[in-house]
Every structure is written in structure tokens, then in C-alpha cells.
Design brief:
Elements (H helix, E strand, L loop, with lengths): L2 H22 L8 H25 L5 H30 L2 H13 L3 H10 L8 H15 L2 H31 L3
């Protein structure tokens, strides 16, 4: 197995361990920002480290190979983390989604919020409050499903790892490994 793949898998396992440790000690389980930033950091570090190690060994390479080598760390990381998040929100901690759905339900009991939805969304102007609540809750349930979370994570991390691979490859070519 190539070094970038090993680094990507290792970083994904590290993120999973941190996420499960956070759940075990009840740290930031309802606020995802901390783990999103750790996720981004680990993905960036995996790409940067693996690309650095590969570039040190190679004598000649082109930009496309550098991007490919960066993606070799990013793709396994993306797949492992996305699949883990599906199981995390489906089986391990489904209460997160339930809490978020309940928060929206509670907000929808306020007539001011319903009125605000009606005025801000032209499609909702002619609907009664019950129809608005039903539509908003249907959208909320689909948005907070584990499958939706996995798909969005897969898409976002794939784009992020692609852009990171490009930017890091360019930085390494122009600054670090200047020929």
C-alpha cells in the first residue's frame, strides 16, 4: 500500500477515535464545529504530509502527479469518514438528529416564526400555518438524516481534498521544492 493511502487511513482513524472520545466524555456532541475543524485540519495535514514525503523521494514530477499523490491521501480519508458519519448518526448517536428536529419543532410553535417564514419565502405566502409546519418538518427530517449527512460529507470532503491537493501541490512546487 502506498504511503499517501496509509496516511489518509491513519488520519481518518485518528479522527474517528477523537469523535468517539468526544462522545464518551460528552465533549461538543451537540455542537459540530469543533469536530469539523479537526476534520479539516487532519485532512489537510494528511495531504500535506504525504505529498511532502512523496516529493522528497521523487526526482522529477509534474503538477498532475503531485495532485494525484495528494488525492491518494484525501480519497481514503473522505470515504472512511463519510461512512463512519453515516453509522455515527444512524446507530451510535441518533439523538443528535432527534434533538435538532425537536428544536425546529419547538421554533415552529411560535406564530412569529411562521409569519417570518411566510414573508421570507414567496412559495409559502398562501399556505396556512399547518402546511408550513408540515413542509418545514419534512425538509428538516430529510436534512437531518444520516444518509443526507453522509452524502453531503462525501461531496464536501471530496471537493475540499481536491482543492487542498491542488493548493498544497502548487505551494510545494513554487516555495518548498523550488527547482
Amino acid at each position: 500500500m502506498k504511503l499517501p493511502v496509509k496516511v489518509g487511513i491513519g488520519a481518518a482513524i485518528l479522527w474517528i477515535v477523537l469523535k468517539m472520545l468526544g462522545l464518551a466524555i460528552n465533549f461538543s456532541v451537540d455542537d459540530i464545529k469543533f469536530f469539523v475543524f479537526i476534520n479539516m485540519f487532519l485532512l489537510t495535514a494528511a495531504i500535506a504530509f504525504s505529498l511532502y514525503k512523496v516529493k522528497r523521494k521523487e526526482v522529477e514530477s509534474n503538477l498532475l502527479n503531485d495532485i494525484k499523490n495528494g488525492m491518494l491521501a484525501g480519497v481514503p480519508y473522505t470515504l472512511i469518514v463519510s461512512v463512519f458519519l453515516y453509522f455515527y448518526y444512524e446507530k451510535i448517536y441518533p439523538e443528535f438528529n432527534d434533538k435538532k428536529i425537536q428544536e425546529i419543532e419547538l421554533k415552529l410553535k411560535d406564530p412569529k416564526v411562521i409569519k417570518e417564514i411566510q414573508t421570507s419565502n414567496p412559495a409559502m405566502e398562501n399556505k396556512n400555518p399547518q402546511e408550513i409546519k408540515r413542509e418545514v418538518m419534512a425538509n428538516t427530517r430529510s436534512m437531518y438524516s444520516a444518509k443526507f449527512t453522509m452524502i453531503i460529507t462525501l461531496l464536501a470532503l471530496m471537493v475540499y481534498s481536491t482543492l487542498n491537493s491542488m493548493v498544497i501541490a502548487i505551494i510545494y512546487r513554487r516555495v518548498v521544492f523550488r527547482n
